[in-house]
């Protein structure tokens, strides 16, 4: 099926409104991104055949996630691309028209720390997304895991990655109008280019699917440690949910530890619990990755860890907005005079399912739920 340019930019789906508590964030929740009535110069609708040729028949698989499989390809006379073949049931997917106009709108959002979305393809029930290819894959692949991988990441590199991710998220939250909540900040969604510039992937994707799929319930397992309690338990979604996930990621970058690790003796250990424990024991420096061999500025590392802990606080309104988090990371705002309270943690998938069911019996919409009564532990 062919699409003409007149198809684009004419659809304006209504989006829910969310109100965010603003004590420490000074940002008001408005509508999330919708489709504007302007042309989208960076956007293309590809034919299936074009992408089949570009990927040599979907031969070179890069990875697989909750929504589909990603393949490496190359457009004729152009740079490398990554093609995500979305594998979600048709009934969970937005219609063709809505899908294309959402992608077109997302392709306008450009920043050094965001992956460029070049276009999409709709072929019958199939949906494909086309991105710039990132040579160094994701943080989950290149950084986390083995000691050798972590040793490649000096403090300066880690600092650059953390600041880049913070800038990308700050841009989505506070520079794009209407703002975008990423919803899925995690190591595998931070891609890294040839120069080790971090790029946020998959922003805005949740809107391509109907609520059943975009909501965490179907794919929560892989992201458990990154989920803010209020979002996990009631679907109450604000920018502060992204801030929570960013905090977890920041702790990962500094410590080199994964969000949840399994110890033969102690069982599951969650990163935020470990950080909180060491913070209370006044031993926060012990969080820093041993692979750095002590080669890092202590004051800066402590500052990064404090920002991480501030971002994962259980009470959403106590978490900083991304602009504040960025200033603190850069040392332009002090973290010393800010109290840090206990982190929230979602550690049990079953608990999420039960509480979601209870919550949906009491609230008619996510926006009407309150986050003040959560017992996250
Ligand atoms: N533009 C890209 N360039 C290079 N590698 C990519 C690109 N996009 C995705 N990848 C790789 O493909 C993998 C799968 O991506 P995908 O987004 O489908 O899954 P995920 O990020 O692991 O989980 P989720 O579905 O929750 O986003 C990623 O982990 C990453 O390693
Ligand atoms: Mg992804």
Automatic annotation (TrEMBL):
GO terms for cellular component: membrane. One of its GO terms (molecular function) is ATP binding. This is Protein kinase domain-containing protein. It is found in: Membrane. It comes from Salvia splendens (Scarlet sage). Residues 56-374 form the Protein kinase domain. Coiled coil: none annotated. It is a single-pass membrane protein. Belongs to the protein kinase superfamily. Pfam families: Pkinase. The keyword Ligase does not apply. ATP binds at residue 84. It comes from the Eukaryota. Keywords: ATP-binding, Glycoprotein, Kinase, Membrane, Nucleotide-binding, Phosphoprotein, Receptor, Repeat, Serine/threonine-protein kinase, Signal, Transferase, Transmembrane, Transmembrane helix. The keyword Hydrolase does not apply.
């Amino acid at each position: 099926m062919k699409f003409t340019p007149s198809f684009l930019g004419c659809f304006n789906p209504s989006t829910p409104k969310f109100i965010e508590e603003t004590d420490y964030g000074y940002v008001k929740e408005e509508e999330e991104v919708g489709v504007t009535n302007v042309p989208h110069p960076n956007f293309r609708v590809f034919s299936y055949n074009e992408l089949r040729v570009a990927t040599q028949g979907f031969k070179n698989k890069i990875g697989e996630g909750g929504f589909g499989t990603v393949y490496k390809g190359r457009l004729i006379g152009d740079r490398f691309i990554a093609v995500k073949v979305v594998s979600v049931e048709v009934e969970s997917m937005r219609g063709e028209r809505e899908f294309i106009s959402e992608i077109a709108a997302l392709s306008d959002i450009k920043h050094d720390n965001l992956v460029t979305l070049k276009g999409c393809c709709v072929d019958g029930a199939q949906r494909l997304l086309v991105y710039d290819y990132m040579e160094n894959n994701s943080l989950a692949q290149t950084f986390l895991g083995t000691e050798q991988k972590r040793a490649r990441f000096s403090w300066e590199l880690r600092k650059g990655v953390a600041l880049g991710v913070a800038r990308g998220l700050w841009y989505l939250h506070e520079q794009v109008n209407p703002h975008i909540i990423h919803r899925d900040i995690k190591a595998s969604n931070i891609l890294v280019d040839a120069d080790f510039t971090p790029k946020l992937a998959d922003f805005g994707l949740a809107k391509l699917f109907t609520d059943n799929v975009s909501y965490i319930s179907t794919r929560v397992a892989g992201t458990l440690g990154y989920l803010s309690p209020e979002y996990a338990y009631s679907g109450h979604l604000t920018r502060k949910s992204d801030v929570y996930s960013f905090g977890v990621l920041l702790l990962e970058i500094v410590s080199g530890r994964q969000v949840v690790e399994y110890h033969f003796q102690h069982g599951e250990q969650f990163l935020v619990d470990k950080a909180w424990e060491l913070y209370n024991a006044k031993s926060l420096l012990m969080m820093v990755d041993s692979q750095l061999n002590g080669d890092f500025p202590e004051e800066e590392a402590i500052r990064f860890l404090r920002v991480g802990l501030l971002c994962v606080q259980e009470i959403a309104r106590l978490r900083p907005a991304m602009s504040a988090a960025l200033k603190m990371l850069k040392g332009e705002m002090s973290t010393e005079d800010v109290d840090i309270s206990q982190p929230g943690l979602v550690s049990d998938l079953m608990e999420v399912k039960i509480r979601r069911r209870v919550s949906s019996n009491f609230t008619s919409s996510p926006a009407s739920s309150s986050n003040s009564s959560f017992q996250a532990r």
